Amino acid sequence: MEHLLHYVWKHKLFPLKALQTTDGLPLEVIDPGLHNSDAGPDFFNAKVKIGDTLWVGNVEIHSCSSDWHRHGHGDDKAYDSVILHVVSEADAGVSRSDGTPIPQFCLEIPERVQKHYRELCDAEQYPACCSILASLPKLTVHSWLTALQRERLEQKATLITDRLKRFNLHWEDAFLITLARNYGFGLNGDAFETWATLLPFRAMEKHRNDLFQIEAFFFGVAGLLEESFLAKKEEDEYSLRLRKEFRYLQHKFGIAKVMEPTQWRFLRLRPDNFPHIRLAQLAYLYQKDDKLFSQLLEAESLEDVRRLLSTRTSDYWEEHYMFGRSSARKVRTMGERSLNLIVINTLVPFLYTYGMHKGGEKMCRRAARFLEELEAEDNHIIRSWHTAGLPVSTAADSQALIQLRKEYCDKRKCLYCRFGYEYLRYTPREKETKQADNQL
């Protein structure tokens, strides 16, 4: 209930009657203050008028007044700045550390807000607020999606920054690790990231012009050349040559750790998505372009980006999908949809992160532009929003809605969502009016 009190206070959804403190003094809320998500009072720099006195300071909110004492705020000088204690039930008096009393206000949550909040919490369909989405003003939708898009980019930038720190701020290494993770396309994402973190980057650089040796590094570190993993019928001349080459490289560079091959997943994957094919494509891409990330930084258009990220495999993998498992000959390039996902989930957040670190606003704008130019992703999350009445046309839209689903809907954080706010405050008549306005 306390988080709902926070919400009602923040948005001033007060009952339509004169407000007063528990002591009967008139209360006017001029500014509810800034919500504080860290330690300390719940709202900073609020402005309220109690009786004839104007107060500026902080506000603390609890379900019951007694929570003030239960949490030890009465002895904490950090709470001496509180000018108003907002509660649902006033069951005790409260005071500052010097004993001076603090005014209290019993905040009633409007029945309509409580009803709508229960509907959001209990809804079985997704999204829970689907009944109002088609009626929302375009400006409301656009502003929230723009904020969500930026939030998602910043969240990804934090992950990339952590990865950079682990690899001594080496952008090319961190980029390849992130690229590898996204080559797993969800199912094998963790395995690909684990694999990439074990690669001996400095050793590979010395053999970059030899695709066979790069494949030996890649498949060897992946554990896919281990005798215990390869069945006899899967061993062929090529796998034996790769194993021999990897043993030589392993000894030369002191490569002690390789992956457990059981970490790779094959169930329900089409052959083109098997780890073997994706590793072969990564090997070709790595060998094709030196300093790949540096070149991508200079790419001004999506056409240039796709050209740099386009890849295929060595001849062997055009006729095989696993060692010793032949298939009809096929040039195994990456499809347009998969390549777009790589741009969305790897290049765009890296451009944004690089811009943040280097003060390059141009890079951040280019990242946003690429998302606007790319088609929206097609998955069950995006289809559900489209069905609910939200138009989804670009990757910027789809990334925003994925963020909304994962960080708000799945976590039932409707009180922090602008669509949830609209749902809580709307009445049926307001919904009908908005729908009529949009039709006009």
Q: If you had to describe this structure to a student in words, what would you say it looks like?
A:
With 440 residues, the chain is an alpha+beta fold. The chain has three domains: 2-109, no CATH class; 111-166 and 376-440, no CATH class; 169-334, no CATH class. Helix content is 50%, strand content 10%. It has 19 helices and nine strands. It has helices at 2-10, 67-70, 111-122, 130-133, 138-166, 171-183, 189-198, 201-205, 211-221, 237-253, 275-288, 292-297, 302-309, 336-358, 361-373, 380-387, 395-409, 418-425, 428-439; strands at 19-20, 26-31, 34-35, 43-50, 53-64, 82-89, 104-106, 320-322, 325-326. β4 and β5 form a beta hairpin. α5 (138-166) packs across α17. The longest helix has 29 residues, at 138-166. The chain starts with a helix and ends with a helix.
Main attributes of the structure:
two-stranded antiparallel sheet; 7-stranded mixed β-sheet; alpha+beta; elongated; 3 domains; 9 strands; 50% helix
Count of DSSP H/I helices: 19
Describe the oligomeric state of these chains in a short phrase: single chain
Class from secondary-structure proportions: alpha+beta
Number of domains: 3
